[in-house]
Amino acid sequence: MSFKSLLTDPSNRLSSWKGENCCSWKGIKCSSSGRVVVVNLRNPHPDEVMINVNKEVVSNSNNTSDFSLKGTVYPLLFTLDHIQYLDLSFNNFVFTKLPVEISNLTKLTYLNLSNAMFQDSISTQFSNLTSLRSLDPSCANLVPDLSSVSVSLTLQPKLDVGSVLSFISNGYLSSPNLRWLEGLRHLRYLVMTGVDLSKALESFHWATPVSSLSNLILLRLSNCNISGRIPIGQLLNFTNLSVLDTSSNILTSTIPDILSNLTTLSALDFSVNNLDGHIPYLPQLEQLYVSSNPAMTINLVSMFSASGSKLKFLDVSFSHVGGTLPPSLSNSTSLTFFQADGCSIQGSIPSSVTKLKKLRILVLNDNNITGQLPVSMSSLISLQYLSLIQNGLRGYIPTSICQILSLDYLNVQWNELTGSVPSCILQLPKLSYLSVQNNNLNGNMPLSLIQKSKLGSEAQSRGLEKIEKDVSGLHVLGCSSRPGPILDHDKLGIRARFMVPGCLQNRIGSRLVYGLGCKSCLALDTEFDQLMAMKASAKCQVSYNILPCFKVLCSNLLVTPYVMIVVMREWFLLMKDHCMLVLDEAIRSIPTQIGEISAIWSISLFGNKIHGPVLESFCQSTNVLQVLDLSNNSLYGTIPRSLGNCKSLIYLNLGQNKLTGSVPKKLELITSLCYLDLNGDQFEGSFPVVLEKFQEMKILKLVGNRFEGRITKFIGDLHHLRILVLASNSFNESIPERVMKLENLQFISLSRNKLSGPIPENLEGLKKMTKTQNQTTILGYYYSLKFTGALLEIVTKGQTRFLVSVYSYNTGFDVSSNALTGKIPKKIGLLNGILLQFSTAEKRVS
């Protein structure tokens, strides 16, 4: 019960934790003698997210509630020394350290702490757990990333996809040395996705202690910042290894031929590295993933030459293939998944591909494939997913495709197909997605059948004359020749998961969408007059019944500020047990009722025209607030001392207001604070001493205030700092030497101050700036349906630029416009910076 008392449980997952008999509690199992042996508190419904085209992390799931437990882990949990199974994954332990008491659970055989918002360095916490069979302390996971998608609207339109997956961090863990693994001799499954192992390369090669785990069946070290050659000498010790995943690292060299000696190996993932050369003959493999190794050459002829191949899954995307799809592809009769995006494949699809009776997924996007779709494709009796985006396919869509009764997804956009879309396609019983946009199709497309088949369709085809207006059953309606906003809400009466109408640049005219009704529209893009039939005032009303988590967008004036205020007051009456409030461009003052929402964990009033002071009621004693964003308003006065009551606060942004005074000492109670932004206000006084208490601080922005005096030395004790921006103040004296020992610091700006003296020499302590980073993690904090990122303002030659999404590989060093003297340090060449500025008005630095 003490464990429960330290947690916030918004979905009441622990409601059964009552009384003395803990063996009856949900998530707890006991042995016949009454000892607790299983504690399974894994979040059953982790929120699925994606990065949209605007580089925003948004929810992509249907969850309307937050199922994660939030808070800290009570140490008494680890006095239950008979526990054999412990799973705390996908919860939110607010960047606390790994519990050292976990080493008491010596009978553990299964431990899963993945994606639970821990922040620590792994050293000896697990070394006593010698009975472990499975260990997973991962702190990152892959999500769909559409931020690099772009469309060039030329005479020959082109879709540039870029990276479609990126890692999002859910905590931060590192390990400077993996020797703690050597005692875990029974370990069979080891997953450390996202754990930073860059230092493990320096002290003791990561592969040496890992290779002592001779019983390993599965090893996943994806996105661990591992570099160098593939450690084949150590890998050969794995006589039982079945799955090896070292994807998304900085591995170089070729894939060694001798890997064929690992006869138990069935799945190999080397994708997203810097490998080169050819793929050796590895007949034992059932799964091979080598995508995004642009220097690697893939010889499909030799890969498919041998009959009887075991290969079931193959992904060679964004590596160099060239040539054509060989007829020998049919030899891989076990193949169920084949993806080769962006491989410069030429020629036509060979008819022999139709012999792959087990093929379920075929993805050949962004190649130079020409010719027609084979009529014999009807022989692919297991095919569920077919994507041939952006090739040079010509001719008709064969009616024989209607015989593939298993087909669920068909995407042939950005080709040169002609004729009409066979009406029989819409009668396929399992089809849920059809995209034929940007072809040369013509004729009618009877979408009235869609309601029966629950089809989602993108039908912009530069020639379709008519789309019938009964579209209430659509999953996806994409009539656009550019990507629209990424949505997952019931908009326009349509379940839109990818696109809503943006511009309709085709020949079908405004009749296309005449009569579309809007049942619960949150936002509607009416930028182009082709949507003239869908006037927002007549057809679209904002739904006020979208609790518990909501966002109202008013860019098209669907809601006036006055209406918004009225509706807000009603919402507050309903919000007491719910989670998040985000309002954009709608309100003039902060209603005092906001303090009554005791269960709210995130408040964002960014970018309104709010006047007045920061309310004392934001942080009442019962609050669980973690995110507070009041930036870009017209707030005045001082920071209220009551903000110190928000002890769960992780993100605080008061920037771009008119706040004055100093930073109150009571804020030191917020020891979990990781992000503090006070930029562009009117704060004054010396460097805030309260900052010394924020040992978890990662991003600190004090730019554009009236702070003065020296930058205190304790700034060098904030070891987790990633971004430090103190520009445009009146700080003087010298740059503290200890700042240059912040190993995680990747961006520092001290420009436009009154600093004097030399630039410190010892720059090698800035490890994040001096070493190449291959991780693509976006900096910021992700909570359920909201992602709070790090925005950087960069001033070069008098021009201001904004870096909207800051990745872990972005670095910068700016000390320009000060009174510095002496020479530029010799070791400045070690820095890998996006920005490197040393100029001063006095030209005293040589």
TrEMBL record:
Keyword Transmembrane helix listed: yes
* Family annotation (InterPro entries): Leu-rich_rpt (IPR001611), LRR_dom_sf (IPR032675), LRR_N_plant-typ (IPR013210)
Could you list this entry's UniProt keywords, alphabetically sorted: Glycoprotein, Leucine-rich repeat, Membrane, Receptor, Repeat, Signal, Transmembrane, Transmembrane helix
The Leucine-rich repeat-containing N-terminal plant-type domain sits at: 1-31
- Gene3D superfamilies according to UniProt: Ribonuclease Inhibitor
Q: Give yes or no: UniProt keyword Ligase.
A: no
Cellular compartment(s): Cell membrane; Membrane
What are the record's GO terms for cellular component?
plasma membrane
Topology of the protein relative to the lipid bilayer = Single-pass membrane protein; Single-pass type I membrane protein
Task: Return one Gene Ontology term, BP aspect.
Answer: defense response to fungus
What the entry lists under Pfam families is as follows:
LRR_1, LRR_8, LRRNT_2
Q: What is this protein called?
A: Leucine-rich repeat-containing N-terminal plant-type domain-containing protein
